[in-house]
Write a structure and sequence with these properties.
The complex is a heterodimer of chains A (425) and B (386). Helix content of chain A is 53%, strand content 10%. Chain A is α/β, with parallel strands linked by helices. Chain A has a domain of 183 residues: Rossmann fold (3-Layer(aba) Sandwich). Chain B is an alpha/beta fold and 386 residues long. The radius of gyration of chain B is 21 Å and the shape is globular. Classes of the chains: A alpha/beta (425), B alpha/beta (386).
Chain lengths: 425, 386
């Protein structure tokens, strides 16, 4: 049987190599060379930063790096000591903590240097506070995109999001988001001294479509294969690196290579874990401080995590056809991001659909303790899965803060869930 | 306690009473969940606007309807509203208007819609999202005006709305605002004349009553309070999550403190400037919108400098101390605490942080801290007299 920690796909190795090279370049240009860069929330239109040549560090990505370096406890303790209480959102604030509390120089590669600007969508009520505090600490500009609420809520949104996005995401919301995006473009033009081009944005959006179409093929292959050809951990590595750089030539070609490799594995009947008996679904953000968790139930129970939102969401959430107004299409992608994953009816309906297509036997739902907006909608998801015959278990934990994570007892809890509810069903 | 105060406190405690009476009298009743829904538009459409409390009784009650669908991360007020609405207590509403004034309210709207879509309850009123944004930018402002026009279209379905009905509604609410300003004046200065808990209840009654009657009673209450014995305890301002009950006030008053202001919409910030009269319905609607957009507090007001302005002016105006109230379910206002604490420190104003849920009573440790805090204030007041 393959070892739980091994990387089975060549494209996984290529993705990690690319990430390493990208980060080395970022370090060279930004950390050492002091080239202007931006810090942005992950749900921002990263396409524009790419287009205008402004290197961008995503808040959530940096948090994952700090967490992976096992520095989250140190920075959260320092943040709490500065007066920010323990009940505040952690996923979105770990990067801030690494800049304003404790010793910022202790952070990965000496900590984040001063950015030219910070940018975020004001989804939950704490975002403007986190980013304004952060921007003030750097003495940098903060660009906020306000976040209007959706009122047109057809449950099967994924059937409309590609071609009928103009009506699905409501014209008044698109007007607002497009106007705000223009403000962001002006700020990025100032930083990069480059001019925004609508034609170049259209090309980039077309490449994003191609990239997501490849991911859709991978998703379909996982659905139809007798046993999953690629572990969830490796799906995430391949997808997320490409999504951070979505629309670049590298991202498209990587998505194609990933598709080819998965297709080849399916064609030859290669399973990620040949002893697969049960297919599990991970609902929620990744458990970045303990990614071994996802392979922990293979050997003992034959239970394999085959699904997470990271691969599955791209095709349904990102593809936009009809790019006569690419900026409006981009606005539709930005305005709805996260809504499909956390808001009823979109999240529950989509996840049940995904569970059926992937022949899921059981679902583990992460309810983040330290990121309240990500915790919302989870009970509707749980009820919907169980009504559809998929046993579901909620686990309360944080994606980046390992301080209260008990790896042994959590594994035991999930194993008991599999034995008592998933195997029986 | 004067008769006027008693009546106001009764309405504060019996939050749905007037709405039910109006409903029985055949007046359409429209519910709202926050201070940022323009009361005047609902009134101008011939409806009775009422805030969905929640009822004070829910502080001590289980919320079984909420427990099934609402994650524990939601604050107690939103859970209680959800539970109340699902219980059928508000099924008589013409519509429930939920503003995008906080993320939990946005989710409340989505959750109630989902309950209706899945037909999990047949007792729900229709829900409507008033998508008011709170960032101070020309783009958000225009968006807000357009959404206010949408809201008018909804309300016009309930009753006719023209310049005359809008003007009358503005007059009614302005009279309530003027009365509330008088009340606030009695709380300010060296010798406040009314206790914080009474003032809080009187202010809160605003959201549950007819405003003509409300203004009359508040004016009477102010008249009798003027001749009341001055209150001499340490003057405190409460800052933190909005207080929809007065249990923190009672806890502070047990230590002889006088709460003179609350930086939230249930307290001192229920009061803001009058809506200016305008010629023409369109101008008046714009003036109504501006009043809410620019003056009503919300956790989403951005930038921080705007959000902090009222607090900074009020503490400099004269308080002896500030109590920061961040109970365990806070996940927003705690981001402001270190900045605001440092501001107070720079201005020589003592502060105390409470991280317990006052609705369940404060622990012995917190009471001991409060005792120490009051002594600290008294010592510094005595020292400044010398």
């Amino acid at each position: 049987m393959p070892r739980a920690s091994e990387k089975q796909l060549e494209s996984t190795r290529a993705s990690l190599e690319h990430q390493k090279a990208w980060f080395a370049e970022l370090r060279r240009n930004v950390f050492d060379g002091k080239k202007p860069y931006a810090i942005a929330q992950a749900d921002m239109p990263l396409e524009l930063f790419e287009l205008l040549g402004v290197p961008v560090v995503s808040n959530q990505w940096w948090a994952a790096i700090v967490s992976a370096k096992r520095l989250s406890g140190y920075y959260f303790d320092s943040l709490n000591a500065a007066g920010y209480h323990e009940g505040l959102c952690r996923y979105c604030s770990l990067s801030l903590a690494s800049s304003i509390s404790g010793d910022p120089a202790k952070g990965p590669w000496g900590g984040l240097p001063k950015p030219a600007l910070l940018a975020a969508r004001l989804t939950c009520d704490c975002i403007q506070r986190i980013f304004e505090t952060w921007a003030a600490s750097f003495g940098a500009e903060f660009i906020a995109l306000d976040s209007p609420g959706a009122t047109h809520l057809p449950p099967r949104w994924w059937e409309l999001s590609r071609d009928r996005w103009r009506e699905l995401y409501e014209p008044h919301r698109l007007d607002l988001m497009a106007a705000q995006i223009r403000v962001l473009i002006r700020a990025l033009e100032k930083v990069s001294r480059r001019k925004f081009s609508q034609a170049r944005l259209r090309s980039l959006m077309e490449r994003v479509n191609r990239q997501e179409e490849y991911f859709e093929e991978v998703r379909d292959l996982i659905c139809s294969a007798a046993k999953t050809p690629v572990r969830m951990n490796e799906q995430v590595i391949n997808v997320m690196n490409a999504q951070w750089h979505r629309g670049t030539e590298w991202a498209v070609s990587h998505a194609r290579a990933f598709r080819n490799e998965v297709r080849h594995r399916v064609g030859r009947g290669i399973a990620a874990y040949p002893g697969e008996k049960l297919r599990l679904m991970w609902v929620g953000a990744g458990l970045w401080h303990d990614t071994d968790f996802y392979t922990a139930f293979e050997e003992s129970l034959g239970a394999v995590f085959v699904w997470s939102m990271y691969l599955a969401f791209g095709p349904d959430g990102y593809i936009r056809y009809g790019l006569d107004d690419p900026l409006r299409a981009l606005a539709s992608r930005v305005v709805s991001m996260n809504e499909q994953l956390h808001n009823p009816p979109w999240a529950n309906e989509w996840i049940v659909e995904q569970a059926k297509r992937h022949r899921i036997d059981g679902a583990v739902i992460l309810v983040p303790e330290g990121s309240r907006p990500s915790a919302t909608g989870t009970l509707f998801i749980k009820h919907a899965l169980e009504n559809a015959g998929v046993p579901a278990l909620e686990i309360w934990a944080d994606m980046v803060d390992s301080r209260r994570w008990d790896a042994t007892s959590m594994r035991q809890r999930v194993a008991t869930f599999i034995e008592t509810r998933v195997q029986r069903s | 306690m004067s008769g006027a105060i008693e009546k106001l406190v009764w309405h504060y405690q019996h939050r749905s009473a007037e709405a039910l009476a109006q409903h029985k009298a055949g007046v359409p009743v429209v519910g709202l969940t926050s201070n940022t829904v323009p009361w005047e538009l609902i009134r101008a459409a011939g409806c009775f606007p009422v805030l969905i409390g929640p009822d004070l009784a829910v502080l001590d009650k289980a919320t079984p309807f909420a427990d099934r669908f609402v994650e524990p991360v939601f604050d107690s007020r939103i859970r209680a509203i959800f539970s109340d609405v699902l219980s059928g207590a508000w099924s008589f509403l013409q519509v429930l208007i939920i503003p995008r004034t906080s993320e939990p309210e946005h989710k409340l709207y989505l959750y109630l819609r989902e309950i209706a879509r899945q037909k999990l309850s047949h007792k729900l009123p229709g829900v409507y999202l008033y998508d008011l944004l709170h960032t101070r930018s020309p783009i958000s402002r225009k968006y807000g005006i357009d959404r206010t026009k949408d809201l008018m279209r909804l309300l016009k379905g309930t009753g006719t709305m023209d310049w005359k009905s809008l003007s009358n509604a503005v007059k009614e609410s302005n009279s309530a605002r003027a009365a509330l300003r008088r009340l606030q004046d009695l709380r300010r200065g060296i010798t406040p004349r009314i206790s914080g808990s009474d003032a809080h209840a009187i202010t809160g009654a605003l959201y549950f009553m007819d405003r003509v009657e409300y203004a009359k009673l508040v004016n009477e209450a102010c008249h009798s309070a003027k001749s009341a014995k001055p209150l001499r305890g340490p003057r405190l301002l409460i800052k933190g999550i909005p207080l929809h009950h007065a249990r923190l006030h009672y806890a502070l008053e047990a230590h002889d403190a006088v709460v003179v202001a609350e930086d939230d919409w249930w307290g001192s910030r229920a009061v803001h400037a009058n809506i200016a009269p305008a010629r023409g319905a369109a101008s008046l609607v714009r003036a109504i919108f501006e009043n809410y957009y620019l003056r009503a507090p919300s956790p989403r007001v951005s930038p921080i400098a705007v959000a902090d302005r009222w607090f900074q002016i009020e503490v400099r105006r004269g308080v002896d101390g500030v109590v920061f109230y961040l109970p365990p379910d806070d996940d927003v206002y705690g981001w402001d605490y270190p900045r605001q604490r440092d501001y107070l420190y720079a201005h020589g104003i003592p502060s105390l942080l409470i991280r317990e849920d006052a609705s369940r009573g404060l622990s012995g440790d917190t009471n001991a801290q409060l005792q120490g805090f009051m002594e600290q204030i008294r010592r510094s007041r005595n020292a400044s007299r010398l």
